[in-house]
Write a structure and sequence with these properties.
mainly alpha, two-stranded antiparallel ribbon
Length: 319
């Protein structure tokens, strides 16, 4: 840390603490010119303001927090000073997750205690629960999908890591697939689900078709045809014009619009929509394109936990 930032932190931190103390001290003195307990001459709605001091319990606790702050800084340091205990973060100076993991591996190999608390807790958890996850991993996903206890574990891992996008009930939301139905972009077999979670998915992407379709009219025509594929009512003239232009889309979605799991191209005939099925949203998808990315979880959860999550996700579509 440079001298400038070291001084900056010292001035801001200590200045704030001293300022709080001086403010508290000033507020404890009577600067009103009115005797304590007497009226301040203000009243509203029958309530009269009296010159009462701050509550003793409040001002005492305020002072205690200031004293505690000085004590904490004295023990653990401030800025570039390490404090009386000489404490420092075990990951101090590390700038990336890769560096952090490398340091952890090196410390474990050396038998060093120089590990962050998270690493220690993970090591303890692996020692305790590792054999349990290994036993689950030795069973097939189909078998685990019928094991109530295994599904509870898989559901808990799912909620902790996947629910932010797919929802706690796995029903998804706009742009994030519903995992509880039987509609799959890349296929719903146990092996495919596990592959999706392990390695993530980065769709080939749907390009923006505004220019290729000749402008807004072309977008409206193709949108009308796409909507008609799922049995909804549209302007027949627009849909007929859009059918011919849909040939540009058939490379991914197929000539009948039933999609292609190899590319992750959705089925357009089932009235299930990832980004929404309104006329406006479908036109927006055609006009501007779409690109979805799901991160890989193999390095975060590990294969054994992914195996359990896969079983849980697979079970959702089997009901």
């Amino acid at each position: 840390m440079s001298s400038f930032w070291n001084i900056w932190i010292w001035v801001l931190t200590l200045g704030s603490l001293v300022g709080c103390f001086l403010l508290l001290r000033w507020c404890l003195n009577d600067h009103t010119g009115v005797k304590e307990g007497e009226s301040m001459g203000h009243s509203f709605d029958g309530i009269e303001e009296l010159n009462n001091p701050l509550p003793k319990w409040w001002s005492t606790f305020f002072l205690c927090t200031i004293v505690w702050a000085f004590g904490y800084l004295s023990l653990y340091g401030l800025g570039g000073w390490g404090g009386l205990l000489g404490w420092k973060s075990s990951n101090q100076g590390i700038l990336s997750l890769a560096e952090s993991k490398a340091k952890t591996v090196a410390s474990l190999a050396e038998g060093s205690a120089f590990l962050v608390q998270y690493d220690r807790e993970m090591a303890q958890a692996d020692a305790k629960y590792g054999p349990i996850f290994a036993a689950y991993a030795a069973r097939s996903i189909e078998d685990l999908a019928t094991d109530e206890q295994a599904l509870k574990v898989g559901q808990r891992i799912f909620i902790q890591n996947c629910s932010q996008c797919h929802g706690s009930d796995a029903h998804g939301t706009t742009g994030f697939p519903n995992l509880a139905d039987k509609d799959w972009l890349y296929g719903g077999s146990p092996a495919t689900i596990k592959e999706s979670i392990m390695n993530g998915r980065k769709s080939s992407g749907m390009m923006a078709w505004l220019g290729a379709l000749g402008g807004e009219q072309g977008v409206k025509e193709v949108a009308a045809y796409v909507i008609s594929l799922s049995g909804r009512s549209v302007d027949p003239e627009l849909a007929k014009a859009g059918q011919g232009k849909f040939a540009l889309c058939a490379g991914c979605h197929g000539t009948e619009g039933k999609g292609n799991i190899a590319l992750g191209a959705p089925n357009l005939t089932d009235n299930i929509w990832l980004y929404g099925g309104s006329k406006r949203v479908i036109e927006e998808s055609i006009r501007n394109g779409r690109a979805g990315v799901m991160p890989a979880w193999k390095d975060i959860l590990g294969e054994e936990k992914v195996h359990l999550v896969s079983a849980y996700v697979y079970s959702l579509s089997q009901d």
